[in-house]
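Hi everyone, sorry if this is the wrong subforum. Our group has a chain we'd like a structural model of before ordering constructs, and none of us has done structure prediction before. Sequence below.
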Amino acid sequence: MSIVYSFEDHYVLVTPIGFNTFEDVSTTFEMIAADPSFNRPARVLFDGRQTNYGPPGEELEMLAEFLGRHDAFRGSRWAIIAIPDTLVFALSRMYAALAEDHGMYAETFTDFEAGRAWLLQPHSAH
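Answer:
Right subforum, don't worry. Here is the predicted structure as tokens:
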């Protein structure tokens, strides 16, 4: 359906709403990387509470590989917020493991403020 993003103080907030394809997600992150407000290394707060779509594992692997190869996201930190006991939560944990295989640091949270606090910690605190 849509993905909205905004640049906050020291991170980018990304919120997918409804169903989004791999192309939707990859295009959004290309736009984020090209935005003059974007800062490296990226800190991404991915709020998945407004989607119930669970992409197949192959798509998660493709996304982790795509972002890991992208200069703007290599070495980035991701706090992924998801509702507990949902498919999105389980897949966000899977994505976190895949992201680390591609040079990114990711953690899954059920509480927005806890995820935001982790994201804003010094980089060595992962």
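For your construct planning: The radius of gyration is 13 Å. The mean pLDDT is 91.
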